[in-house]
Amino acid sequence: MIKNDISIILERKANFGRAKSVLMIETILESMKKALLKGEKIEIRGFGSFRVVPKKSGYGRDIRRNKQIPISGGKRVKFRAGLDFKRQLKKQSME
């Protein structure tokens, strides 16, 4: 699913025009991006939460040259599914 698919669903379910649904999706995603860049946690009840976590530096292997190469640390976004979402996934896998 891509951003365009989400805007089509919003357009159909909420009876918004195409331009308004695209603007809403872009506004929501931009707000989420800004919050994560500030280091804030995003929690969507029933779905899950997003947060920025540090990523360790380490070493990888260049298989062509058979050498170790350094991999710098940084940050990454981590998603953790909410309880309702986890229950639905578990129920679906048991069917």
Rg from C-alpha positions? 19 Å
| Tally of separate domains | 2
Count all strands and give the number: 5
Quote the beta fraction.
Answer: 25-35%
Question: Structural class of the helix and strand makeup?
Answer: alpha+beta
User: What percentage of residues falls in helices of 4 or more residues?
Assistant: 40-55%
- Give the count of helical stretches: 3
Cα distance spanning the termini: 23 Å
- CATH superfamily membership of the largest domain, which one? IHF-like DNA-binding proteins
CATH hierarchy: architecture of the largest domain: Irregular
Question: Rough shape?
Answer: extended
- The string of secondary-structure elements, in order, is HHEEEEEH
Trace the largest sheet across and list its strands: 1-2-5
Average residue-wise pLDDT: 93
What about the largest sheet? 3 strands, antiparallel
CATH topology label of the largest domain: HU Protein, Chain A
Low-pLDDT ranges: none
Query: For the record, what CATH class of the largest domain applies?
Result: Few Secondary Structures
Characterization of the model:
The protein has 95 residues and is an alpha+beta fold. The chain folds into 2 domains: 1-39; 41-95, HU Protein, Chain A. Helices cover 46% and strands 31% of the residues. The two termini are 23 Å apart.
Primary descriptors:
single chain, 3 helices, 46% helix, two-stranded antiparallel ribbon, 5 strands, 95 residues, 2 domains, alpha+beta, three-stranded antiparallel beta sheet, HU Protein, Chain A
